[in-house]
Write a structure and sequence with these properties.
Layout: H1 7-11, E1 20-26, E2 30-35, E3 43-52, E4 62-66, E5 74-78, E6 80-88, E7 95-99, E8 105-113
Antiparallel strand pairs: 1-8, 2-7, 3-6, 3-8, 4-5, 4-7
Length: about 110
């Protein structure tokens, strides 16, 4: 978990703070929960990488949700994604990867619980 820091430091984070790294290979069609915060906490997503295996027979659409699978929680939709952007989910809201079809998608998320 990151240490307390001022809002100026928050905006200028260049990698000197320690965050949780969550890696997974998602293969099933539909939603897969990648990370669930501790009770009463929320996920602050710092960076996410999700890419289809280029040698796989199928290339499913990747949908990324932060908080649940309802449409208001969808934050990204792509076939491949590498995005550094701070996004906070709701309290107790999980990080979910949803594939439109079975495939092989490598996922790395850098996040913190607050």
């Amino acid at each position: 978990m990151a240490t307390n820091r001022s809002s100026l430091q928050e905006g200028l984070d260049s990698g000197e703070y320690e965050y949780t790294h969550k890696v997974a290979t998602v293969t099933a069609s539909g939603p897969t929960t990648i990370y669930t915060p501790s009770a009463g906490k929320l996920i602050k997503l710092r960076w996410i990488y999700a890419v289809n295996d280029p040698s796989a027979a199928t290339t499913p659409l990747i949908r990324i949700f932060l908080g649940g699978t309802a449409s208001q929680y969808e934050i990204f939709r792509a076939y491949a994604l590498s995005k550094r952007q701070t996004i906070s989910g709701p309290i107790d809201g999980p990080l979910i990867i949803d594939l439109s079809a079975a495939g092989s998608v490598a996922v790395t998320a850098i996040l913190e619980e607050v």
